[in-house]
Write a structure and sequence with these properties.
The chain is of the alpha/beta class. About 40% of the residues lie in helices and about 15% in strands. The chain is built from nine helices and eleven strands. Strand 8 (about 195-200), helix 9 and strand 9 (about 215-220) form a beta-alpha-beta unit. Helix 1 crosses helix 4 and helix 3 packs across helix 4.
Length: about 250
């Protein structure tokens, strides 16, 4: 059972926010789709609709390319995945900031959280080289004290090891940490690590999918994240704060 702690001032709320990248902080779908289609063209394969490619995003580069190859060349995935990875790396490195931008409200949110003294981390299935290039290019790299990327761990999200490492290194208790993401994968990752989850509706996934994943919080405005009420599990409350059952959304 989960509860939300009501009546806390901001300083007593979450002290560690772990953010997903694609779809959560940045609108990157168009550049990802462009790189995938350039890869497919390089392999002599038909392009895919942008919306179809974006549906494949969220499980890391290899899964993105495997899914795209399966759609464009059924039965040839194992044959083409190696060359596809090489072509994609080159194509995406050249165009990862062509149309990728911060989502509305993200820069003010990060600034406000830092002003309050919160610890900010990043957890993404994107390779580190691409992640760092995007953060630097959008001038938000200094906002994050730590990050775990797709090639930093043996298993990507929803495996919880990356999130657990960020929590341990932050020095902030797990109960005061919230993972913010735009997909069921992020919610599953948080749940596996025993961390609160916040799903955002402006990303790459539909609100219905997010509701079905049962996040602890569901928001449609970035500004709301700064004042989320802390969610604790039964038996995990501290400080004598009053507890009420958490809402379904």
């Amino acid at each position: 059972m989960r509860f939300v702690v009501r009546g806390l001032n901001p300083a007593a709320g979450y002290r560690h926010f772990v953010f997903d990248l694609d779809g959560t902080l940045v609108d990157s779908g168009a550049d990802l789709a462009s790189a995938v289609n350039e890869t497919l063209r390089g392999l002599g394969l038909p392009e895919l609709p942008e919306t179809q490619v974006v549906d494949f995003v969220g499980h890391g580069m290899r899964r993105l390319l495997q899914s795209s190859l399966a759609a464009a060349a059924p039965g040839r995935v194992s044959e083409l995945i190696g060359p596809a990875i090489d072509l994609f790396r080159e194509a995406y490195a050249q165009g990862l900031l062509d149309r990728t931008r911060l989502h509305d409200g993200i820069m003010p949110l990060l600034s406000e959280l830092r002003r309050r003294g919160a610890c900010l981390s990043l957890l993404t299935n994107k390779p580190r080289a691409f992640t760092e290039a995007i953060l630097c290019g959008l001038e938000v790299d200094a906002c994050f004290s730590d990050m775990v990327c797709g090639d930093d761990v043996a298993a990507p999200k929803p495996d919880p090891q990356g999130l657990q490492a960020l929590v341990e290194r932050s020095g902030v208790p797990a109960g005061l940490t919230c993972l913010v993401g735009d997909s069921a994968v992020d919610v599953e990752t948080a749940r596996a690590a025993g961390i609160a989850s916040c799903a955002v509706t402006w990303g790459l996934r539909h609100a219905g999918e997010l509701r079905a994943s049962r996040p602890d919080h569901l928001v449609d405005d970035a500004a709301r994240i700064a004042d989320l009420p802390v969610v604790v599990r039964e038996g995990g409350a501290s400080g004598g704060a009053p507890l009420v059952p958490a809402p379904a959304t």
